[in-house]
TrEMBL record:
Listed SUPFAM superfamilies: QueA-like
Oligomeric form and interacting partners: Monomer.
Entry protein name: S-adenosylmethionine:tRNA ribosyltransferase-isomerase
Family of this protein: Belongs to the QueA family.
Name of the encoding gene: queA
Record bears the keyword Transferase: yes
EC number of the protein: 2.4.99.17
Function: Transfers and isomerizes the ribose moiety from AdoMet to the 7-aminomethyl group of 7-deazaguanine (preQ1-tRNA) to give epoxyqueuosine (oQ-tRNA).
Compartments it resides in: Cytoplasm
InterPro entries for this protein: QueA, QueA_dom1, QueA_dom2, QueA_sf
Pathway in which this enzyme or protein is active: tRNA modification; tRNA-queuosine biosynthesis
Keywords assigned by UniProt, alphabetized: Cytoplasm, Queuosine biosynthesis, S-adenosyl-L-methionine, Transferase
Coarse class of the protein's main subcellular location: cytoplasm
A Pfam family the protein falls into: Queuosine_synth
Amino acid sequence: MRGLVFVGHSGKLAALMQLSDFDYNLPDELIAHYPAENRSASRLLQLDRMTGEVSHHSFRDLLDMLTSDDLLVFNDTKVLPARLLGHKTSGGRIEILIERLLSDNEAIAQIRASKSPGAGTRINVKSASCDGVLEIEVTGRQDAFFKIRFDSSRSALELLQQFGHMPLPPYIDRQDEPEDQTRYQTVYGCNPGAVAAPTAGLHFDEPLLDALRDKGVDMAFITLHVGSGTFQPVRTDDIKSHQMHSEWIDVSASACQKIKACRARGGRVVAVGTTSVRSLESAAQMCPSNGDLLPYQGETDIFIYPGYEFRVVDAMITNFHLPRSTLMMLISAFACREQIMNAYAQAIKERYRFFSYGDAMFIR
């Protein structure tokens, strides 16, 4: 599914397409460099789209905000230890960020080096935790990425577990630490393939999930393997000219059936994170406008910004996003931009913690 961009073109909405419309000033000290001590102890800002009202809560209060008719939709991707640090055989330092595994011994990746490596370049990666060297060969290019091959009889997943580092976002200005192995993962992640966490899900712990189940809140799981492109800045002033990166999604028949049942009982489809939003709305674009959601597995580069008409999602849980990012545009399509900017201003005033390891919003 390539190049999906949906936006209104009338008056006010058409004018709201400049990158600067999604900017705000954030004090550096509000960027969270470490997670909260307990996942569900994060703060939760609630935004009511009908009234624009903002209220402040603990994330555990989500239990009181949902009803037994509602459906939570989670992204069950699991983050790969996708960052590899090594040297060329010629001696130069090199950093590899896996974008996607292609097979048991091949991948595409971003490579950072003093000189761009050509096909045939060999790289040695050492493990920080044990002896051994992983040998990698650059085999060519694929679009903006490098194709690499692991010279080992072991699977790429095994090799990354031994030699890889957790790919913390660039705004977390520190090296990864042992705690990140678990805290930069959701507790329900089970499908390895992401190089960034679906961060809204980081706030859920097992006691909260159990309490939600006991209340009768239903749960469905989709998969979107988050790519490194999620951190790529928008470089065009006219946001309609921006091209989204492509990511792999799987919206299963089971998830579609649960959404249909939720609709039938009058509940809300509550997407946990923008990745769940993008997956559900991508699948919806493949269906007739008056039909039920159907399963979809494949690529998506859907770009959602103001003017988009949501077909599946009724409410969303999301973290606070970077200024001028496509995720700011997505939530500004779900609630109006003025409401989002006001909510962010209040979050800054109240000293919420921002970005991947930060606090959350519930937009209903």
